[in-house]
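Researcher: Structure prediction, please.
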Amino acid sequence: MCLSSLMLTWVLSLQESAAPSPPKPVTVMTYNVLYSAPEEDVQKSLDVIEKEAPDILCLRELTPRFVRAFRKRLGKQFPHVRLVPRKGTWGVGIASRHRLLRTEHLPQTPHRMPALEADVRLGEHLVKVACVHLMAPGARHQRADDLLTSMEKNAVLRHRQAEALVRRYARWRGPVLVLGDMNEGRSGEAMKAFASAGFQHACDGPNADCGATWPGSASVLPSVVEIDHVLGRELRLTGAKVLRAGGSDHDAVRATLDFSP
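Model: Predicted structure follows.
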């Protein structure tokens, strides 16, 4: 082989070795961990998180007790966190293997149920991540309200909460990931608002294995409704799966995120 051929081979090998490797898929997971779960069930929920090892995790009904157990067991696996625990159902948190560039704990409009937002850098993409909890169907606002009245009022509230989130991200031109307990199925008005705004449901993506998420694995009753969701805009969600394990009355949902067309 002549010298010029050797030089060409050497240059080509350098170019191949310097070529950027394709970005690794990013796994995301949403999990309502049940504020009243006993310690045994908290550990079962941590088992699920540890086994799935998501890159980005949205937690709801996050209590101080769950946070203590989470930090003790999984703190090293999730070095980047914003955890805002509360007694009761309003605790929320985002845990990530990727650095959180900015976080904001915000009241959802029109009801002040808290949500958590983070900016996450994934390769060349800056992704807005929202961890949300929409109004529960049976929450009573006035003592005189019966169950049917409460459900009707809360359906309207969820729709308005979803519309407020849609408006919040309407001017953001990058990818958006919305994870949460929406407290309604895909036929609900809140979920329709997300769909109309261009949010894709992970369970409509390739290789999905989805279904009802409530009541979850901690319940003796079978799951009957799909109320926990992973939604994305300007990104691709694949391999969505309902994880039928853990110690909550909700099953977690996991999906893979990438930016291929």
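Model: Residues 8-12, 14-22 have pLDDT under 50 and may be disordered.
Researcher: Thanks, that helps.
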